[in-house]
Amino acid sequence: MKESLHYLLMANHLLFQKALLAGIKDTELTSGQPKVLDFLKDHDGTVQKDIASACHIEPATLTSVLAGMEGKGLITRKALKGNRRSLYVYLTAMGRECALRVSEEFDKIEKKALSSFTREEEAQLSALLSKIKTNINAKGETSDD
User: Is residue 12 a contact partner of residue 5, using CB atoms and an 8 Å limit?
Assistant: First the structure.
């Protein structure tokens, strides 16, 4: 029986997530926190709404994720120029260390997942997944297009 695309995408996502959480279980990070750390590693000092958008997390959910991270000493949130409506999120030294650890674990899992791929297949897979993301994010188009 041929597995559907949606099943394969969801199964691979869940397997990747399970491997990641197993590999970093000693950090006590929750499921939403690694992707936020990974994003902040390259975008330190970003406003919360941009983190939510980039990480595909609802703003209300992100607030809860960030509160947990702040409680663990991984991030600080600061209002710039007295504007309390826009909080900027920064990694602490501990957060940077944890973000590097998460990044190393992501790399390890990716290496395993792509171990039997040629460089051309890796590039093709990346391009096709990007195309799927673009198609799904396309606004104003019907499913019949």
Answer: no
